[in-house]
Amino acid sequence: MLKISHLHKSFGDNAVLRDISLEVAQGQVVAIIGPSGSGKSTLLRCINLLEKPDSGSLQIADTEVQAATLTRQQETALRAHTGMVFQHYNLFKNKTALENITEALIVGKKIAKAQANETGLQLLDRVGLREKAHSYPAVLSGGQQQRVAIARALAVKPKVILFDEPTSALDPELVGEVLQVIRSIVDHQTTLLLVTHEMSFARDVADRIIFMADGAVVEDGTPEQVFNQPRHERTRKFLSSSRS
């Protein structure tokens, strides 16, 4: 479903991603862990081309692009396969919860408003927020805003959903409700990539754990292998510090 080959990304002299290559099967749930500054979020932003890689290639489903020759049309085609949930929600403040979900359906996919609204209400049901359909983000808690953002990502029926630290901006008491919604959408048909600091959640929900450090993939394996028998000292140090 997703293939990344020799991806590089630098900001000035700072190499943030160094020769990243990995493949993710359809329906896999992959948690990406690692210290701050290791390139995890930049990798997600490169996958949906919010950041343009310097070199390498990306393929999602049947759409493949080369960073060196990327066109606007290819960028749109690749991004159409993805949904993204951001750390700070990124909801439109002047639109209701329902309108935030239906915007991409009406404007991007040219779906009739009545049909888009029906889909939006079904998705709000799915994340437990139907009664907030006509509420604006300002009156929603952080957890509720993030649940709307998840519903918005689901609306376009993406091949791959990218979660960029979806709980890190939340108060501790709101983290559980968002993690529960993420758990509920794991259907092993949609591919999920999740950057997270929630180690126990990653271990519980993911099929596969990728540990990144210094812009590179250091370790890639099952939760059992990475958490219980890490092969690399860098992984062991990180997991030890995250438990303390």
TrEMBL record:
It is a peripheral membrane protein. GO terms for molecular function: ABC-type amino acid transporter activity; ATP binding; ATP hydrolysis activity. This is Amino acid ABC transporter ATP-binding protein. Belongs to the ABC transporter superfamily. Drug exporter-2 (TC 3.A.1.117) family. It is found in: Cell inner membrane. SMART domains: AAA. Keywords: Amino-acid transport, ATP-binding, Cell membrane, Membrane, Nucleotide-binding, Transport. GO terms for cellular component: plasma membrane. Transmembrane segments: none annotated. Residues 2-239 form the ABC transporter domain. Gene3D superfamilies: P-loop containing nucleotide triphosphate hydrolases (3.40.50.300).
